[in-house]
Structures are given as C-alpha cells and as structure tokens.
Design a protein that fits this description.
By secondary structure, the protein is mainly β. The protein has a single domain, classed as Ribosomal protein L33 (Rubrerythrin, domain 2, Single Sheet). The protein is built from no helices and four strands. The chain has strands at 12-19, 25-32, 39-44, 49-56.
Length: 58
C-alpha cells in the first residue's frame, strides 16, 4: 500500500495589534497566514480610550 499524503495545514503565526496613536503593542494573537491585515478599534490603556489598532509582525 502507498502512504497517503494529507493536506498541508497553514501554519498559524503570532501577530501584534499596534496602536496608531501611541505605537504601543497592546494585543497579540495567533492567526493563519495570508489574507488582509487587521485594522480594529481596540482599547488603548495608555490613552484610556478606544483607538485604531493595526496588525504588525514583530
């Protein structure tokens, strides 16, 4: 019997969400590679308000 080849899984990578206003790395998350970069409105503890956070790889 021949060995069956399974599908290759896309590896998850760690990305960081960086505050646009302060440049702080406030959040980290694991997501699959590819796709569009995240741009979310999240809480910034330094400014104590919600700001836009962009995805950035370290």
């Amino acid at each position: 019997m021949a060995a069956t080849k399974g599908k290759k899984k896309k590896k998850a990578e760690t990305v960081f969400l960086v505050c646009e206003e302060t440049g702080d790395y406030n959040y980290s998350l694991r997501r699959r590679t590819g796709g569009e970069k995240l741009k979310l409105k999240k809480y910034c503890p330094r400014l104590r308000k919600h700001t836009i956070h962009n995805e950035k790889k370290k």
